[in-house]
Design a protein that fits this description.
The protein is an alpha+beta fold. It has 8 helices and 9 strands. A 9-stranded mixed beta sheet has the order 7-8-6-5-4-3-2-1-9, sandwiched between helices. Helix 6 links the parallel strand 5 and strand 6. Helix 1 crosses helix 3. The longest helix has 16 residues.
Length: 201
């Protein structure tokens, strides 16, 4: 999605930047890890296929993605590649329950791929920034998260965002959690994180 191609989101611990071609080699290196692919339900891709996927994330209107940078590393190095720690994504589809027909359900994903960056609150802040950005710029009525049953860290993370379990599919080893967008929840979201948007060049 081109919505965010010139947008940088700045938080306390992390910075979110659009997924660019220069990020692909490091991202591909991350996804060579079988454990990470299993936790994220991702297929193994060649480097060429990874570049194709990056272009798809940029061009397709039903996908929104940011690369997650460690704010401290980036401040010290001014090097996005060195500061990369993960990514956060939304997959969008129209909400069939809404009569207007232009409201979205957004499936949310967060991955902190760099092992040394886990357990530091980066994933929580990055996902909060993404949720708030989507709420500000897209007509989202409901967020979803589909998580591997063994991924207790992600399950607890989304539960902390007030997502609730609505489905458990044993054959796919997957739990689906949902969060409907309500005035009360938006008030809660506003209290969790300050979002600072800058032009990304």
């Amino acid at each position: 999605m081109r919505l965010n191609e010139h947008t940088k989101l700045v938080g306390q611990r992390v910075i979110l930047v659009p997924y660019e071609a220069r990020h692909v080699p490091k991202y591909h290196e991350w996804m060579s890890c079988p454990t990470l692919r299993n936790l994220t339900a991702s297929d193994e891709l060649t480097l060429s296929e990874e570049y194709d996927m990056q272009r798809s994330w940029r061009e397709d209107n039903d996908k929104l993605t940011f690369i997650v940078l460690c704010a401290e590393t980036y401040a010290n190095t001014n090097d996005e590649i060195a500061a990369m720690v993960g990514d956060t994504n939304l997959f969008l589809r129209y909400d069939d329950d809404e009569e207007e027909g232009n409201q979205y359900v957004a499936e949310a994903e967060i991955m902190i791929a760099a092992t040394e960056a886990r357990g530091k609150g980066y994933g929580r802040e990055a996902m909060l920034l993404m949720l708030k950005y989507a709420q500000n710029h897209l007509s989202v009525t409901k967020f979803e998260a589909k998580i591997d049953m063994d991924n207790q860290i992600s399950l607890r993370l989304f539960e902390s965002f007030q997502f609730v379990e609505v489905r458990r599919v044993e054959v796919f080893h997957e739990v689906t959690l949902e969060r409907k967008v309500t005035p009360d929840w938006l008030t809660w979201l506003d209290q969790q994180v300050d979002i600072k948007s800058e032009t990304y060049k």
